[in-house]
Amino acid sequence: MDDHLKETKIDGQLAYDGNFLKVSRDCVKLPDGKITQREFIRHPGAVVILALFDDGRVLLERQFRYPNDQVFIEFPAGKIDPGEASLACAKRELEEETGYTATDWHFVCTIHNAIAYSDEHLDLFLARGLTAGDAKLDDGEFLETFTATIPEMLEMVQRGDITDVKTVIGTFWLEKIAAGTWTPA
Fold first, then answer.
1. Cross-strand bridge partners of residue 59
2. pLDDT tens for residues 47-56?
3. What is the distance between the alpha carbons of residues 82 and 71, in angstroms, rounded to a whole number?
4. Residues in contact with 135: Cβ distance below 8 Å, sequence separation at least 6, in sequence order
5. Are 30 and 7 in contact (CB under 8 A)?
6. In Å, what is the CA distance from 97 to each residue of 26, 56, 156?
7. Where does the chain cross the membrane (predicted)?
8. Are strands 46-51 and 122-131 parallel, antiparallel or unpaired?
9. Which residue among 25, 98, 119, 133 is the one 20 to 30 A from 143 at the CA level?
10. Three-state SS for 152?
11. Is pLDDT at 185 greater than 80 in this prediction?
């Protein structure tokens, strides 16, 4: 059906093999028969947790992100380990980063956040029934948590205080979920 748009790999190589990311460089045949190269990042995938308290407040984090040299407001999130199921990763990351556990989990959606140069995907989960505990941050991980209402988050998106794509998309999902117009899977 979409064959007229498909690019076909002719050859490829690993251009960079890092601890976290891998960069591939492939030679591809375009739909018009021409040959070109594609460089892209291989990523194992990640999860995002939309942690919603009974009073309607949402759990957020403030974390410095080195590539952009600034602190970002984000949902709790983390990389999926090899062989780890997405939901297990979400539960682990929520507790590690924030200390919270949840009794009610729902898959929301999968997003692809950088389709032009990465195969990374993010699985979003709604977490309810939250109980506080002690965070277990990874060595070298520094963040602080806080809460906000969904209307406050929407204002932060509108003002440009929240620009992280997973958090923007998750905020819009929460708005629809709270209004009862969208239901997670």
1. 147
2. 999 999 999 9
3. 28
4. 95, 96, 97, 98, 99, 145
5. yes
6. 36, 20, 22
7. none
8. parallel
9. 119
10. helix
11. no
Q: Specify burial of residue 25 (Cβ count, 10 A radius: 0-12, 13-18, 19+).
A: middle
State the CB neighbour count (10 A cutoff) for residue 146.
11
Task: Write the pLDDT tens digit of every residue in 16-26.
Answer: 999 888 999 99
CA proximity to 77, closest of 99, 104, 108, 46:
46
Task: Tell me the two tokens of residue 122.
Answer: 């993010």
Are residues 119 and 45 in contact, defined by beta-carbon separation less than 8 angstroms? no
- Residue 77 Cα to chain centre, angstroms: 6
> Crossing angle for the helix pair 165-179 and 150-159, nearest 10 degrees?
140
Tell me how far apart the alpha carbons of residues 100 and 160 are, in angstroms, rounded to a whole number.
27
What are 24's two structure tokens?
């591939």
